[in-house]
Design brief:
Helices cover about 60% and strands about 10% of the residues. It is mainly alpha-helical. Helix 6 crosses helix 8 and helix 8 (about 115-130) crosses helix 9.
Length: about 230
């Protein structure tokens, strides 16, 4: 098994007390087969989960000042879901370092997403105890910010109408209305133009091969005009 130095180098972190890192990597199945061990990683996982929720929330609040509460909540949920945390664990090579019982190892535990997620959170908990909140913050932001930016772009592109509705209802207390102002071209190749209006005022205009696509484009135009993205 590669050394803990390899893991720390790949992850870009340093534990002064490597005992905390060993504990973070220790699955309960390992204790069942090694009576000399006294603690698995579950308490560190609990702590790491709490630290992660706070840091990701603070990171998104500061990085995306234009986002409404609902958008921030959805983005945070995308970042801390089991599958995404398991992917972060794979990026820094956690799987090969986990201390597993033989049965769990043979059953493919090192690749199980729930297990990888748990160990990732336990490492965050251990790093917090070892080096403090700032060290965890630096580690989390280095991994999470590029993914957060990509998810934010994708979510905005996919659901601009929902985001603009949130903005309009929050800032203006009105619900947007979408009005088709033209439909040009032959039936099989029409181009629709849609305006999005709030309280009678035009906030954005968009075109597309369907009314839905044109409405999304209009919402995106509106979001850009009001500085929400």
């Amino acid at each position: 098994m590669p050394s803990l130095a390899d893991l720390q180098q790949q992850a870009g972190i340093t534990f002064r007390n490597e005992g905390l890192l060993y504990r973070a990597l220790t699955h309960r199945s390992y204790l069942n087969e090694h009576s000399q061990e006294t603690e698995d990683n579950e308490r560190l996982e609990f702590l790491g989960d709490a630290v992660l929720d706070f840091l990701v929330g603070a990171m998104l609040y500061n990085r995306f000042p234009e986002m409404q509460e609902g958008q921030l909540t959805r983005l945070r949920a995308s970042l801390v879901r089991t599958e995404q945390l398991a992917e972060f664990a794979r990026q820094i090579g956690i799987g090969q370092h986990i201390r597993l019982g033989k049965g769990e190892d043979e059953a493919g535990g090192r690749e199980r997403e729930a297990l990888l997620c748990d160990v990732f959170e336990a490492i965050l908990g251990g790093l917090y105890l070892d080096s403090g909140l700032e060290a965890v913050k630096e580690f989390v932001e280095r991994l999470f910010l590029p993914v957060a930016a990509e998810i934010a772009r994708e979510q905005t592109d996919i659901d601009a109408k929902s985001y603009f509705q949130e903005w309009a209802q929050s800032d203006l207390n009105f619900t947007p209305q979408y009005v088709t102002v033209s439909a040009e071209g032959p039936d099989h190749e029409k181009t629709f133009t849609v305006e999005v209006r709030v309280n009678g005022e035009i906030y954005g205009t968009g075109a597309g091969r369907s009314k839905q696509a044109a409405a999304q484009a209009a919402a995106m135009d509106a979001l850009k005009r009001v500085g929400a993205i």
